[in-house]
Amino acid sequence: DAMVIQNPRYQVTQFGKPVTLSCSQTLNHNVMYWYQQKSSQAPKLLFHYYDKDFNNEADTPDNFQSRRPNTSFCFLDIRSPGLGDAAMYLCATSRPGQGFGQPQHFGDGTRLSIL
Amino acid sequence: EDQVTQSPEALRLQEGESSSLNCSYTVSGLRGLFWYRQDPGKGPEFLFTLYSAGEEKEKERLKATLTKKESFLHITAPKPEDSATYLCAADGSSNTGKLIFGQGTTLQVKP
Fold first, then answer.
1. Are the Cβ atoms of A109 and B42 closer than 8 angstroms?
2. Taking CA atoms, what residue in A is nearest to B30?
């Protein structure tokens, strides 16, 4: 089955220690998104790649970076995690057309804890 | 500013007790309205896409409808396994597929 896979499912890191989360997809979608979701809140978009073009949301902290080496993979780097960065991180993909919108397909997320 | 608002925040039902969840949206150039189900500790699972007022989609006990200002997710004779958070999201006029999410409705169905 075509899908979006996130690794690891759970990640524990120390305050200030860089961490990388990964996402891969077999849907061959050209757009990949990274969201942060805290308890009982809606997913908050951090950034997205439209093909190779990186698009940052205005309120995404500089501490968060992303890389997309090819169509299938995307990484989220948190350079110096703070306690407030503890959250679920969700990766999603879509293939938006010029006309009607298309749904995003999500992975099961990485739960990040900061010690 | 584009906005999506869901109500209620939480809903408790007895098994078999039908109800509806509401999603109000203010989005210019709506390209699609999406419903997702999210179980604890998992990513949102896509349920439905609605494109135009009057459109309806059904899947098992769920039916989604759309008007020019709102969408409803009707749950008929729910079962405990329908317990989850239901998210509504709108795709506005951007061609990037960016979604505007509501805060979600957490549904609990008791046996």
1. yes
2. A101
